């Protein structure tokens, strides 16, 4: 499958320190693989980490570099706003604008593009995710899987340099999930993907970052990092 | 029926509603999106006219708009006549008096919009103005309409502020509620009854529209 040729330079290089109440998140990591699974139990800080990378949550201190762009450097007072980070973000519950059609939802982030370029990009994504018949429907007229495909098209439309996915496939059946992942891989956009499911993360076959109580405890190939969790799951299933 | 008073009332209510929406929409957006410490005092100030007796508000406005203050003197210098006892003065009084009825429904409408949508709009590069016009306003259309309806109806029925600031000048500041007062003073109870019934009709119709919208909205949410 076509994937972005990775140089030695990381796609994303981040060091983040975040505190809220008694919860503390300290994470230093770099993304080298096209797909990276951020794995951890509920409450480990996965969503917070994604929100900090997206610029929606502000850390106490840290730096984030995406490709050549410095998105955050608290020491230098640099904070690039979310809309200028060139990052797409898709949540478990697709955040689609309920008053807009699928087509207008997809083109929401393309307001600075020319009309022709905008229409061409929307058509390209409608074709990619095979959602042309849904283009003129509003979100309430769509199923969960259909909404999720529109949400992915919306996030990809402005050609982001990184896509953050916060358990977006949980509500999808296995064939839709496989279809969506295949289409996403074909776009060559690097993905940081949150999951708390070992089976899900194992299947993605990517790099993994293991997060426990706000601290990164391991990073490497999924099948090495999550081997013990998989064994544990298999033994539970065989009981 | 005092047609002149009816026309003044409708004109006053329409102008007041239009001005209130223009002020309340950006103010409500600021209230729901700010982290400033000024939020609480500003919200308190916008709610104050609900608690203050209209005559108190009217009295202070009368003093403020009169020739003893710099604002009043500036207005006289600008236009050649004082603000008190004019239609413009009446509009200023009505805008302040109905302020909470515009701001509170719009704040409630904006607050009910899912924050995930606002964040998605920010990630997709929308400016604050585009978030307001492209996300918040269309998703709060019912709240904006409710605010407009409440402002209009509240202004139609106001008495104390109108009497204090506007006086009772036929064709300029005499509204329906003042007309009722005059009719009762003149023992013209039948005329007062007709005017009062008209005000009741306007208020009841507004409330029916408001509750019908609320019912339709609740129905749509449970579909």
Layout of strands and helices, then pairs:
The complex is a heterodimer of chains A (239) and B (223).
Chain A: E1 12-20, E2 23-31, E3 35-39, H1 46-54, E4 61-66, E5 69-73, E6 78-79, E7 87-90, H2 102-106, H3 115-128, H4 144-156, E8 162-166, H5 174-186, E9 191-195, H6 198-204, E10 207-212, E11 215-221, H7 222-225, H8 227-238
Parallel strand pairs in A: 3-9, 3-10, 7-8, 8-9
Antiparallel strand pairs in A: 1-2, 1-4, 4-5, 5-6, 10-11
Chain B: H1 3-33, H2 39-51, H3 54-65, H4 70-79, H5 87-97, H6 99-111, H7 115-123, H8 128-139, H9 141-157, H10 160-166, H11 176-185, H12 189-221
Helix pairs in contact in B: 1-5, 1-6, 1-9, 2-6, 3-10, 5-10, 6-9, 7-8, 9-12, 11-12
Which characteristics define this entry?
heterodimer; A: 239 residues; alpha/beta; 6-stranded mixed beta sheet; 8 helices; 32% helix; B: 223 residues; mainly alpha; 0% strand; globular
In short:
Chain A has eight helices and eleven strands. With 239 residues, chain A is an alpha/beta fold. In chain A, the strands form two sheets. A six-stranded mixed sheet of chain A has the order 7-8-9-3-10-11, sandwiched between helices. Chain A has a five-stranded antiparallel sheet with strand order 2-1-4-5-6, covered by helices on one side.
Write up what this structure looks like.
The complex is a heterodimer of chains A (239) and B (223). With 239 residues, chain A is α/β, with parallel strands linked by helices. Chain A is built from eight helices and eleven strands. Chain A is globular. Chain B has helices at 3-33, 39-51, 54-65, 70-79, 87-97, 99-111, 115-123, 128-139, 141-157, 160-166, 176-185, 189-221. Chain B has 223 residues and is mostly helical. Chain B is built from twelve helices and no strands. Chains A and B meet through strand 7 of A and helix 7 and helix 8 of B.
């Amino acid at each position: 499958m076509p994937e972005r040729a990775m140089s030695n330079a990381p796609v994303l290089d981040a060091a983040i320190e975040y505190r809220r109440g008694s919860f503390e998140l300290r994470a230093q990591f770099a993304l080298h693989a096209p797909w990276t699974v951020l794995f951890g139990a509920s409450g480990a800080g996965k969503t917070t980490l994604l929100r900090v990378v997206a610029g929606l949550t502000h850390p106490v201190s840290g730096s984030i570099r995406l490709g050549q762009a410095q998105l955050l450097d608290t020491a230098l007072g640099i904070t690039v706003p979310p809309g200028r980070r060139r990052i797409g973000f898709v949540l478990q519950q697709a955040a689609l604008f309920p008053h807009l059609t699928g087509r207008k939802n997809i083109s929401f982030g393309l307001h600075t593009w020319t009309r022709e370029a905008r229409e061409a990009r929307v058509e390209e994504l409608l074709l990619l995710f095979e959602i042309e018949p849904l283009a003129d429907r509003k979100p309430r007229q769509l199923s969960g899987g259909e909404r999720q495909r529109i949400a992915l098209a919306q996030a990809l439309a402005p050609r982001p340099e990184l896509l953050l996915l916060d358990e977006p496939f949980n509500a999808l059946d296995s064939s839709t999930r496989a279809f969506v992942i295949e289409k996403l891989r074909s776009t060559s956009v690097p993905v940081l993907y949150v999951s708390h499911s070992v089976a899900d993360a194992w299947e993605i076959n990517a790099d993994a970052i293991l997060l426990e109580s706000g601290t990164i405890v391991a990073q490497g190939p999924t099948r090495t990092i999550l081997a013990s969790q998989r064994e544990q799951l298999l033994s539970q299933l065989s009981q | 029926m005092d047609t002149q008073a009816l026309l003044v009332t409708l004109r006053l209510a329409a102008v007041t509603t239009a001005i209130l929406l223009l002020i309340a929409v950006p103010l409500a957006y600021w209230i729901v999106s700010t982290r400033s410490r000024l939020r609480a005092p500003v919200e308190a100030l916008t709610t104050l006219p609900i608690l203050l007796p209209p005559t108190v508000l009217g009295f202070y406005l009368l003093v403020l708009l009169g020739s003893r203050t710099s604002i009043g003197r500036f207005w006289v210098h600008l236009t050649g006549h004082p603000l008190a006892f004019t239609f413009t003065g009446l509009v200023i009084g009505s805008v302040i008096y109905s302020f909470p009825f515009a701001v509170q429904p719009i704040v409630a409408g904006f607050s009910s919009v899912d924050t995930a949508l606002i964040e998605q709009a920010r990630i997709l590069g929308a400016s604050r103005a585009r978030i307001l016009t492209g996300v918040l306003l269309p998703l709060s259309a019912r709240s904006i309409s409710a605010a407009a309806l409440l402002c209009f109806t509240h202004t139609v029925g106001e008495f104390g502020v109108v009497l204090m600031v506007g006086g009772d000048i036929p064709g300029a500041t005499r509204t329906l509620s003042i007309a009722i007062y005059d009719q009762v003073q003149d023992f013209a109870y039948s005329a007062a009854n007709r005017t009062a019934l008209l005000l009741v009709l306007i208020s009841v119709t507004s409330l029916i529209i408001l509750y019908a919208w609320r019912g339709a909205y609740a129905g749509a949410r449970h579909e």
